[in-house]
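=== RUN LOG ===
request id: a7f3
mode: sequence -> structure
chains: 1
length: 168
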Amino acid sequence: MWNKEKSVQLTHCMVRIFYLILTVVAAASVIIPIAVKDYGPLAFYVIPFYISVPVGYIALMCLDKLLIHIKKGIVFDNTNVKLLRIFSWLCFFVSMVTFLFVVVVILRMHLDTIGTIRVTFISVADWYYSIFAFCVAVAELFVGVVVRVVKNIFEAAIKIKEENELTI
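=== RESULT ===
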């Protein structure tokens, strides 16, 4: 029979799998270009990923700690609110990094011969990257907002719990 403990265990297992996935993808994003000796245009597109990898590990650590607390029965606690707050800010940070790189790709500028700035679009692949990265940035922002709402619910629940404990 499916129960709360199994659900938390499954979620914790998935977080641990994401540690592995993030490590494999981060390693592959370094090893593959070296193996094929192609550092060219692809190198530019993985910059936001490289910036986001450490943030991803921190986010996974927050989720890991949160799930450990839930397993121990420590649910409505200020530590969990802090972990959710950190997680939401990490989502906002990664979203902003992704948005910035979308802007950089779309508005890749260079000085032309008379010194004026003009915008150039390098290829159709830039447009596809921009659309995909924009969608990812919106998704990251949405996750940050959802986690922020959950954090606010936890804060309200803690306040109610503390008031109830004072009443008894």
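=== NOTES ===
DSSP finds five helices and two strands in the chain.
The longest strand covers residues 109-111.
=== END ===
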